[in-house]
């Protein structure tokens, strides 16, 4: 009993696949072993029977020759026939010794081997004869053969006294010869039928054994075939079951048991291909799922999804297909559903979701859903167009305040703009994956004629599509709306540092890089920056990150914490587009920036608009009082540059200073000298 736990432990460590393989294969292995054993046994029996028949043939020939040579001696008196008689009689006598040795208790196999060897049997056949005699003498056919052998042997033994008398006499008379011939005739009459019966029974027994062996092999083969058919059928049944489960798993969600996106799209495709297009499509997105997942953990999120799945499934029609599309998003295909019915069902589903009382670990969560509805009968949709329309409708429901239903309308201007922005999401993802963004740089020049010049530029972003360069204004709004700016900012920083690290004299310049408001909230950006700085070997002091005053003020505390952390690394900051929101003057002293960039809308018209001039002058004075240097944007001619020098602005940026050019590693930034610079 003490050894059982160890055995159980070892069993636990056997891989399940191996146990399953053994469970499937063991009948076949057993049949193969049995078939092999039966075949081996059949060969052994056949070989033994062959050896026994050969021995019987030698025995019959020996007794026949003994009678013959003794008879020839009686007829001729030639002593040479006596010698041949003894040689012939030695064969059945040897077999007799072997039989008596095997019939002894216990059997003497060594003596039996010697006896059969005297009987003229081949040494390789003798073990088979002994094995057959010892273990199968109880069979009726074998027992009868041995009885005939023993009886014939008894009659044959009568030759021994005649042989002894012949050996003793040097000469025999005519009367003695006639007497010997008479005795030999009597013995021959007695022995011949016995010998024939022995031979016949042995042949019959051999045929019976061969028939039994053949039947056994055929029976075993039949069992093997039946087992194979049974196992194959079981395997096919099991395979069909697995295929059914795999098919169900491939088309259904493991968590909720609902159809998945694949089955959903197949069903929607069939609905769109049908003759009737009076169908509806819905996307449902849970509004508070992230809060449940973050606060209650994934177990809470999973339970909420199961609960929503059950409640929504009970509220739809029997012909409708409810599917989980991924995350917290569900889709419904409503065949043969009028627009008013679709809207009514959507409102009911929203109400059912809102009414869910979800409690997890003592905390109650408010649940709601945004529902997008598409009437497929109002327009000819492809599968992708229908999915995109439902996606946009669901997004619009969220944009308008969540917990509401939005019906897709092709004439809705806000929806059209949203769709355009949504299209940018795919294009921007593709641009990031294919590395199709390009970096440009625009010089920033010092307006202090006596100050030593250093490389100073702003790194700008462009997007290349179909051979055209797109300015940031074309895609940044969509990137900000859909949360792609942190990824784009990372791309800009990593590629900019790679180029800066390969430029001559780059370590003494200043390179301004724009950061979005979303990046200010990204806690992982600082570790990322440390890593790319380390990899590029560029000192952090050459980087100046530009953030807009709007994003800084909207997230003031986060912006200050972010900027202080970045400044601790060695980076500098510039406040971009300053002056658009004048309330930012109040926060200027709190923001740890090095530069204030005066918004170009004031600079561009400052020579013709006195209010713009005064605004530029005021921003410059306040920034200097706060210890910040100023940079004027949109400096497009020499007159504006001179006016900025009069006001005392520190730096200028614009087409007059230099147009954006590709940012490359083969040369450092060159700020072009103009005669106006000297004036």
How many domains make up the 3D coordinates? Answer: 3
| Helical fraction | 55-70%
Strand portion, in percent?
5-15%
How far the N terminus sits from the C terminus, by CA atoms, comes to 106 Å
Give the beta-strand count: 18
CATH class of the largest domain: Alpha Beta
Largest sheet: 11 strands, mixed
Count of DSSP-assigned helices:
24
Shape: elongated
CATH level-two architecture of the largest domain: Alpha-Beta Barrel
Low confidence ranges: 1-13, 668-679
Please, what is the average pLDDT? 83
GO molecular function: cyclic-guanylate-specific phosphodiesterase activity
InterPro entries: Cyclic-di-GMP_PDE-like (IPR050706), EAL_dom (IPR001633), EAL_sf (IPR035919), GGDEF_dom (IPR000160), Nucleotide_cyclase (IPR029787), Rev_trsase/Diguanyl_cyclase (IPR043128)
Domain GGDEF: 277-410
Organism: Shinella kummerowiae
Descriptors for this entry?
24 helices, disordered C terminus, 5-stranded mixed sheet, Alpha-Beta Plaits, disordered N terminus, 679 residues, TIM Barrel, 60% helix, alpha/beta, elongated
Describe the protein's architecture and organization.
By secondary structure, the protein is of the alpha/beta class. It folds into 3 domains: 17-226; 261-410, Alpha-Beta Plaits, CATH 3.30.70.270; 436-678, EAL domain (TIM Barrel, Alpha-Beta Barrel). 60% of the residues lie in helices and 13% in strands. Strands 8, 9, 10, 11, 12, 13, 14, 15, 16, 17 and 18 form an 11-stranded mixed β-sheet that branches. 32% of the residues are buried. Pfam families: EAL, GGDEF.
